[in-house]
């Protein structure tokens, strides 16, 4: 059996079809960057090392997509660094800024370039390719940013796709409510991906350089299926697909072979992964609570989910009619789902991590 990598799936998805769904998803994601704004500014200003020999400060936003969120994130970092120079009375020594926008090659960089602020204070460039590999020459980066991207696995764990494996995820599309072996396979893939990510960034980032990462996580004791919006969404999609099997629209094997490549660790789990890697010190690790109560109108939920999942479904089912039906069924169910009717019960958090490249 050919095991399709998650990256391939994302690469082949046509995100530009998103239209309104992309705009809704962007404004939903932006809430995370807005909630972290003060924290990021404070932490970067406190921990960025001013070096008089620096001629240019290089920043990358990994997994940037093509919306306004990445522009805001980059602006916040630049403001924080400039404020540090100003505070030290070094205003006239502020280096030039070079900003790299990284995402998969399929990302709509042209749309992103069109919305870059005309009066921006930085040189902008696209950096296409996976963030699981080095992106720039050795030690040439000073700040890395990422929001809402580091829970995207590089590939679907092989075991969950193999019918002979105890972790075969038959009849399910995610590890939510699945057997323990499935969950363990996802967790192992996530740990491996983070290790790869940290090693790739250790190549790119100069000693003393910073990484400001915003990662969706869940507290240990949380039941993903009933206490998180995302868990609720995935289960609704699963039930839509099972109904479509019963209606003869798709077949059982198409559900068996579909697995969504997202993982949500606990803060402790992520802490352990970063410590074990050892290439970056953890300067700060904090849960962002201000997102808890905020929710988006329920009728927009389908559009938001479409931005991330439509391409994956299109690739998997190779039929626009099937994909339309999945989202139609989803839109009917989501408005009566208990977790979505009470988004204040959502226990998913965003973890803010500030890491510093060790010597
Ligand atoms: C949910 S979006 C977040 C976009 C943006 N950072 C934000 O907060 O609005 C996740 C982005 O990560 C990108 N992505 C996923 N895996 C990636 C990888 N291995 N390398 C580069 N980008 C990746 C996706 O293409 C997508 O644009």
Automatic annotation (TrEMBL):
The keyword 4Fe-4S appears for this protein: no
Compositional bias per record (Basic and acidic residues), positions renumbered to this chain: 8-28
Key words of the record: Magnesium, Metal-binding, Methyltransferase, Transferase
Keyword Magnesium: yes
Superkingdom of this protein's organism: Eukaryota
Endpoints of the signal sequence: none
Source organism of the structure: Ziziphus jujuba
UniProt region (Disordered), positions on chain: 1-28
Protein name, entry field: Loganic acid O-methyltransferase-like
One Pfam match: Methyltransf_7
